[in-house]
Specification:
The complex is a heterodimer of chains A (about 325) and B (about 200). Chain A is α+β, with helices and mostly antiparallel strands. Chain A is built from nine helices and twelve strands. Chain A has a domain of about 100 residues: Immunoglobulin-like. In chain A, a hairpin with an 8-residue loop joins strand 2 and strand 3. The radius of gyration of chain B is 24 Å and the shape is globular. The chains are: A alpha+beta (about 325), B mainly alpha (about 200). Chains A and B meet through loops of A and helix 3 of B.
């Protein structure tokens, strides 16, 4: 079990980017600029304080008990010292005001993202996965997916954030700052991705045993590819074509799977676990814990607790022929 | 004089030594008791998979020849806070509350009272969930993992106070419709057919 966990864990994390220093949208850009400003100001302060301290150490009086005190210091004119201290205080206040002002300006800039033509997504945090529902004025066009957001480059994305059980926090460092998902409250959060790419997000509020394995991928792609993905996602799951996949669908419906998961176009409509209508098209399984391929999927279904201890998915001891059929069926859900 | 002082100091030291050893023994005993406490332990190894064959349930106290001792894995779940909390979550997930409400009953019978139509023992409840019962109780065998059925059994019993209170679930985060399970006074289970005059006679 432990070996399996070690085998599957590190693979998925390698490719997607999760980096505050490489902003891929206007808001991450503003935050990055503020971060740079703070870095510069703080570096200057650090250097100034260090230099002042070294100078003070160097100028400290040298002598021993027998050296008489320097009474001349008491009569010395202190105008110059007053000037130096006054300038230092003034510069410090100016520096603080600069950082404070920059923070206010950044805050305002973050709030001023134009939201016309936005993509509206309802994102619900669960222990330990993300449920994404793409809203649409046409009810038939609404669809659900999990742990992977596809967004169009250059268009704003408006997230409605909710939590199902405990407090989670949405954080995709390349795109924006953090926003908490709090049970019983609805938060709104908007960002825009200007550079195509795959960005990794991570739950940023400790939410239980598998908090570390609650990742989210945001895939920013050009408009036409995004529209293709949306069209495909809106359609029902493909019907099984051959005997194996037909048997696989039967296994899915007759065993524990259908109690929690949904596949559109079938009798499985439960909403307690990730929607599996397009599960084979996702890059990772179990909210970024493992890569998505048939071997990993088999290991996951057979014993999820070995890979993600504490996850709400139970172990499923299926006969191997049933398991193979089930995997074959799930692999057709693209 | 000095001998007296030495003696009394020695006596005091001996007294404090014996106090120390009592404290040490008590501490060790407490540590041993923690090892025996299963409230917080978690089991992540997979169990037998979807429950198809329920454990044997004896429907009578009478047995020929020697009485077989009762064997049950249910206590493992009933003293464990994690299992009970999972049971509470699953009770909603699998829509048990759709018919049994929050234990008060509705379409299905109440679960928080002392009346048990098909038995109050964990194995009875397990069989009821897995096999289903006439007049509307679905048969969940094969549709709910074995582990989860036992968690549900433990939670169902906690609704009428039949599990240790220190392990039972506490109040809900949202609307509270009844006393939380860890504040529920234990009921004394009776079969449904028993006349009402004999209720609580046990």
């Amino acid at each position: 079990m432990r070996i399996a966990a070690a085998l599957f864990s590190p693979v998925a994390i390698a490719s997607p980017m999760q980096d505050v220093l490489q902003p891929a949208g206007p808001q991450a850009g503003h935050i990055h600029a503020l971060w740079l400003l703070m870095l510069i100001v703080c570096s200057i302060v650090l250097v100034a304080v260090t230099v002042a301290m070294l100078l003070a150490v160097r100028r400290a009086s040298r002598g021993d008990e027998s050296t008489p005190g320097d009474a001349a210091l008491l009569t010395r004119d202190e105008h110059r010292i007053h000037r130096v201290v006054g300038t230092a205080v003034g510069v410090s206040i100016a520096g603080l005001l600069l950082v404070f002002g920059a923070t206010v300006i950044t805050d305002r800039a973050l709030a001023q993202l134009p939201l016309n033509d936005g993509v509206h997504i309802r994102l619900v945090g669960h222990q330990w996965w993300w449920e994404a529902t793409y809203d649409d004025p046409q009810p038939a066009n609404v669809f659900s997916t999990a742990n992977e957001l596809h967004v169009p480059v250059g268009r704003p994305v408006v997230l409605t954030l909710e939590a199902d059980d405990v407090i989670h926090s949405f954080w995709v460092p390349n795109l924006h700052g953090k926003k908490d998902l709090i049970p019983g409250r609805t938060a709104t959060f908007a960002f825009r991705a200007d550079v195509p790419g795959t960005y990794r997000g991570q739950c940023a509020e400790y939410c239980g045993y598998q908090h570390a394995n609650m990742a989210l991928l945001v895939i920013a792609e050009p408009s036409d590819r995004y529209e293709q993905w949306v069209t495909r996602s809106r359609s029902s799951a493909p019907q099984p074509a051959d005997d194996t996949t037909k048997r696989g669908q039967q296994v899915f419906m007759q065993s524990t799977c259908a109690m929690c998961h949904a596949i559109t176009g079938t009798n499985a409509n439960a909403k307690r676990a990730p929607d599996l209508t397009r599960v084979a098209s996702r890059e990772t399984l179990a909210a970024g814990a493992i890569r998505n391929d048939p071997t990993a999927l088999t290991a996951w279904i057979a014993d999820p607790q070995a890979i993600k201890p504490g996850t709400h998915m139970p172990a499923n001891a299926l006969p191997s022929s049933d398991m193979e059929a089930l995997i074959a069926y799930l692999e057709t859900l693209k | 004089m000095s001998t007296l002082a030495f003696l009394s100091a020695h006596g005091r030291r001996r007294a404090s030594d014996s106090v120390n050893s009592v404290v040490a023994v008590a501490g060790l005993l407490m540590l041993a008791m923690i090892a025996g406490c299963q409230r917080e332990s978690r089991h992540f190894e997979p169990t037998a998979g979807p429950g198809i064959t329920p454990p044997m349930v004896r429907m009578s106290e009478l047995q020929p020849a020697q009485v077989n001792p009762k064997q049950s894995i249910a206590p493992r779940y009933e003293v464990n806070a994690y299992s009970l909390a999972e049971g509470k979550r699953l009770f909603e997930w699998y829509n048990c509350n759709g018919c049994h409400a929050n234990g008060g009953g509705g379409i299905g019978p109440a679960l928080m009272d002392n009346v048990w139509i098909y038995g109050a023992e964990p194995e009875n409840i397990y069989a009821t969930i897995v096999q289903g019962r006439p007049n509307g109780m679905p048969s969940f065998g094969g549709h709910i993992a074995d582990e989860q059925v036992w968690q549900l059994v433990a939670y169902v019993r906690s609704m009428s106070g039949l599990v240790p209170q220190d392990a039972a679930t506490s109040r809900n985060d949202d609307i509270q419709s009844k006393k939380s399970e860890n504040r529920t006074d234990p009921e004394h289970p009776v079969p449904a057919a028993t006349p009402s005059s004999s209720e609580r006679s046990q």
